[in-house]
Each structure stands twice: as C-alpha cells, then as structure tokens.
Amino acid sequence: MSHTQRTDTYTRWAVIASGEGGGRIASQFFSRRENPGVEDRILVMNTNRTDIRNTIDRLENTLGDSDSLGDHAMVFGSDEGAGNVFADGERLAEESIDEIIRSIRGVVPTADAFMHMATLGGGTGNGSIPYTIRTFKNGSDSDAYEPWMEDVIHAAIGVWPYEDEPPQQQFNAVCGLSRLLRMPDGTQNADMVLLGANTHIAQMGNGDDDPHGHPNDIVNERLIEAFDLMISAGRETQGVIDVQDYVSVPSQIGAYHFTPAIATDMNANVYDLEYMFEKAAENAFVPMDVSTTKTAFAIVRAPRGLASDEEFSENAVNSAFESWKRDRGIDAPGMSTVSITDGARDKVDVLLLLGGFDLEPLLDRSWDAFETHKTRLERGRRLGNASIAADQMTRIEENLDEYIRFLEE
C-alpha cells in the first residue's frame, strides 16, 4: 500500500466480533455518528440467541428501531451457547464456518483488514475468533469465500478478564492468547494481536464514568477510542502508517502482540510532544514494562490548524518520538505519523502501539489460576460438550512458551 498522502481514501476495515463481550465492544460503533474506515462493515456473532437479542436491543435503544440492525448479527452453532468453554466455541464455529463466512460476506462486500474482537475469558468469542482467523488465513473451500479474502490482514483485539474472575476465565485467557498468536502447527495466526486488560483499563478511570452504565462500558469505550486512533493513521495524514506497516516488521521479528497506550485532549499550548508520549505510555492497556518494547508506532492526532505548525510537523513528531524512545531505553523499529482532525484548535490525542513487550506482568496475574483449572481438567473434570485433548493442551502451552522464549532472545 502506498505511503503517499491520502485525503479521502481510507483503509477499508471490517469489524468481526464474537461472543457477548466482543459484541458489546463492536455495538458501540453503531452509536457513533460516523466511522470513517469502518462504515457499516460490522458483524456481531454469537452462539446464544438471547445474547444476540440483547445486543440488538441495546442498539435499538440507542439508535431507534431499525430493520437493518439484524443484518449485522448472526447466531451460529447447533447448541444454545458455549458457556465458558472455549473448546465448545471453537467446535461450534468449525461446524458453522460456511455460514460464518457467508454472513461476513453479506455485510463486508470487500475489505483490506478485519479487526476481530473477543473477550478472552469466555467461551464463544475466545473459541471462535482464533479458529475463524485461522480458516481465513489457510483459505477455505466454502462457496462463500471470495478471492479478495485471500489478501485480508487479520488483526484482533483480545480483552483479558478481570483479576477477580474465576480460574476458568483465567485459563481461557491464557489459552486464547496462545491460539490468537499461533496456529496448532506453531505458525503465526493473527497478523496483529492487540491486548487490553479489564482491570488495568478500568483503573484508568477519571471519575467521569456513568454510575448507571454497564461496568464494562468505559473499558469498551477506551478500546474503541484506541482503535479509532489506530485507523486514523490510514486516513488523512501527513505521512501514512497503513495496516501493512502495522504487521510487516512485527511479523518479521516474530513479536506481533501489542497494547494501546493513549493520552487524549492534551493541551498543545502547555505540553510538548515528548511529555505527551510519556503520558500515553503511563496509560498502557495492560500491565507492562515499557522498556521491553520491541516495536512501536506513534499516532498524533492534531487539529488541522495545529498540524500545519512546524512543532507538530511530521519531522517534529518523528524526532520527538525517537527522542522519547531513547530516553526510555527502547531500541525498537517503528513509525510515527500526524493524523489530521477538525477538532478543537489546541487539543491533541496521542496513541502509542507498543509491541513485543514482556508478557510476564500480564500472565503472572492469571498463571496460578490457569494451573489450577488445568489440574482439574487433567483429573477428568469435564466442562461443556467438548473436551480439551491432552495433546491439544500441550500444544497450546508449548506455542505460548515458544513465543515468550523467542521474545527473551
């Protein structure tokens, strides 16, 4: 894709969400007045008809009754829900993959990239999204599979469960991360995995949260905010970072997990760019040591008038970003860009995409619970209609261990 300046041509993203948690995130797109880059290329899918109905009801309460909303939702699988068993979610997706591809094609006539969304503590999204990505990347013999789908880039947002959720949810999350990162044969699965931790994001609250809203609403809104900043780099910019840039170098170095880190409404009359980058880094969406970052991108969204000033030029942003990385001891390839908006004259938003960082601070919060639940399964306790074979469990662990060891080299 070209690195020339764009004015009205966007990278065409589509949002594919699965499970109740993923559906909650994706449904917030519909409540926004415009989604340049996404438009109405959104599909919410679930194995549970009640959850899908609840999603549509939330949309209708926000937008009013619309006959077209149902076209963006589908139920798949022969069972009424997958519970919290990711193996059931994967099994149901496998038996319905032709229907899933057909539904995607119905709302996505074409796209450059898919953003898949799932919460990793559950069964439906956590089970189906890694399998769906794998199917697209390996190619499908479904008659709904079209040639343009061969070239789609697959990014994924995986949301880590709250720290106080039960061991099964923590077990699911560890398995989900491994399956998003790698296929069963050990090769790369998603082209880019964006991670956010519920507890960590919720702690970024500033006191303005709606006390009557769903506990996850503010978390989901921040995830959407980060995604919007991310895709703004493929719209009107001084120097385009496009979706191919997000995945090419990380895949080459074998470190393709990321977390967003954001600072919004920064006063350009008060703060310089390096300070803005530092404030963003303080708001990373997972617990992490920023200095372990192996690849990084910076998107500075500035109002049109401010973007024309020398101190917010492409060169100035790149220089400040490189200086910030040096000060932080980060020796990482990446890019920076200025994304232009028609917002307030002095307000600047910053997104850092920090990739390849040490995963231990995130995994440490779930590992004991993971081991506890794995032991229960090894003792023969069966949950749901699908079992997790011993060799499958071994491969899931080995894939994650190998990925982590590669990061440490």
Automatic annotation (TrEMBL):
Protein name as catalogued: Tubulin/FtsZ family, GTPase domain
Naturally occurring in which organism (per UniProt): Halopenitus malekzadehii
Span of domain Tubulin/FtsZ GTPase: 15-200
Gene3D superfamilies, alphabetized: Tubulin/FtsZ, GTPase domain (3.40.50.1440)
Domain of life, source organism: Archaea
GO molecular-function terms, A-Z: GTP binding
